[in-house]
User: What shape does this take?
Amino acid sequence: MNEKETRKRECLIGFLTIIFFLASFSSSSGAEISVPNDFGTIQAGIDAASPGDTVIIADGTYKGNGNIDLDFKGKSITVKSENGPENCIIDCEGNGRGFYFHTGETQSSILSGITITNGHASNGGGIRCSSSPIINNCRIIGNTATSSGGGIFFALWSAKVTNCILAGNTAGAGSAVYVSNAKPEIINCTMIGNTATVGAIGISTSDVTVVPTIVNSILWDEPSIFYYASFPYTPNISHCNINSTEVESSSIIHEDPKFVDVSGTFPLEWDLHIQSSSPCIDKGKNGVSNIP
Assistant: This one.
C-alpha cells in the first residue's frame, strides 16, 4: 500500500470514528417514553425509564393505582406533560398524593407541566418532598393535608419550585407549603386562595440558617402568611407581592396583583395571569437561578 492509499485509509477510519462517536452521544441523550401509549400508567413509565430518559404524559386526566403516590425512585429522569398543565391532570380523588420524592433525587430529577388536584395525606397533600428535585410549571390545586403542607411538604433537602401555581389547598399548618428543616427555592410562583388553621406558609426549623428562599412570587392568601412552628425569623424573601405586612423591604409590595379572573368557584377555573395594569409588572429580580 503506497503512502497516498495509507492516508486515504487513515482519513476514512477517522471519519467513521467521528460518526460512531456522534451516534453514541445521541443514543446516550435519553429515550422518550410515552404514557399511555408505551405504558398504561405514569408509574409504569417511570419504572421503565433509565437515567436521562423523559416520560411524556399525553393529554388527559389520570386516576387510580399507578397514577397517584408516584415515586421517581431516585432516578435522574424528566416526567412532563405533552401539552402543559391545563391538559394533563392527576386527580388523586382524595386517596393519596400526587408525588413523593424521598430517595435522593437531585436537580436532574425534573417534574414539569402537571396539574395535581384532590390529593389527601397527613403531610403534603399534593407533593411530599424529602429530596432535591426541580418542580416546574405545575399547578398544585385543591389538595388537603390533615397536618401540614396542603400543597407541598418539604423536609430536610433543597428542592426548586419554579413557575408553579399553588391554589385552593388546605392544611392544619402551611396550606400552600410547609417547610421542615429544608431550604427549598420558590421562584416565580403564585399562591392564592389557600386556607389553613395557621399560615399559608408554615416553617419549622432548628437552625436559622436553614430557610426557604422565595423570590419573584405572589403570595395572596390569608391575613397571616407565615406560621413558625419553632421560632420566628426572617425568611429569605424578596421581589414579591404579599397581601400581609409580615415582611417589609424595598422589594416587597402589598398591592392587588390584578389577576385576570378569580371569579370561579374552584381554582382550576381561575385565570391567574396578571393584567397589563398589575403592579407586579417590572418588579421582579433578574439573574435568579432557575428563573423560567
